[in-house]
Amino acid sequence: MAKRKIGVLVMSYGTPASMDQIEAYYTHIRRGSPPSPEQLKALTDRYEAIVGGFFPLRENTNRQVEQLELTLNRDHSDVEYKCYQGLKHASPFIEDGVKQMAEDGIREAVGVVLAPHYSVMSVGGYIKRAQEAAEPLGLSMRFVKSYHLHPQLIRALAERVDSSLASFGDVPKENVRVIFTAHSLPEKIVEMGDPYPDQLLESSKAVAERVGIANWQFAWQSAGQTATPWLGPDILDVLETIHREEGVENVLLCPIGFVSDHLEVLYDIDIECKKLAEHLGMRLERTASLNTDPLYMETLSDVVSERLRQPE
Questions:
Q1: Residue numbers belonging to the annotated binding site for Fe(2+)
Q2: Which residues participate in the annotated binding site?
Q3: Distance between CA 253 and CA 174 in Å, rounded?
Q4: Per the annotation, where are the binding residues for Fe-coproporphyrin III?
Q5: I want to staple 299 with a disulfide (CB 3.0 to 4.6 A). Which of 110, 153, 196, 265 is the partner?
Q6: pLDDT exceeding 90 applies to what percent of the chain?
Q7: Can you give the pLDDT at residue 52?
Q8: Minimal CA–CA distance to 134: which of 111, 118, 112?
Q9: What are the pLDDT digits (tens) for 242-276?
């Protein structure tokens, strides 16, 4: 008997694949409005600072999609899974991934985002675009909304915090301030009752409890430069505050809201935060990103297959 064939639309924010694609990428983020020369230079300089023309995020995402397909088919032999990429701001766009599934004869699919925490402004937007693309094509889709407390995800993050704390050598782990971070969003999501802030705190608490640490807090990072206020406090302000008011000298950052080496990790943390910490005389380390960690792949495989078993 032929196996049930299921498409998996793996969605993420996207990134330019090369330096010459940055302007088109930035224009898409700005909803078709090209950036000013100053804005374009600022973003180009950030990419240049971390990659020198090579884009690890694109490769990381490609590998995550490949590994998820392998993991799904290894763990669930009763179904044939085929993974497709759908990016928010770069090709292949979410609509391209949906179209390709339909052209390949896929009639059932599950959508999952490479972000464990749900917000109507992030994951919700991805789902909306995929649904709108799928319906006219007769493609039946169901979606994983969040997986922020999945045991394998918490275990993977806890292992990273644990091993990074060990890198501080003779410094007792209770003397290292662990700060969990995630991408800020506009403050208005709080008024909307959006679950994003609460889910991030729940994940952070679960990781801290598993590692056995009490000296931790949460901060936001990478807020957009817009007229409307974004969630805070920002990590740069937090570093200055804890150094000035509490005399904190050792900090471990765990960017819990990111699952691979994004610009926000490689630049905002590895360059901006480390530069500030050095200026303040603090030691700052960062946990390694999940990327294709088998535990993260198992998390995604599990939530996709579980969603498939549930009613639409």
A1: 183, 264
A2: 13, 30, 46-47, 126, 183, 264
A3: 14
A4: 13, 30, 46-47, 126
A5: 153
A6: 88
A7: 65
A8: 111
A9: 999 999 999 999 999 999 998 999 999 999 999 99
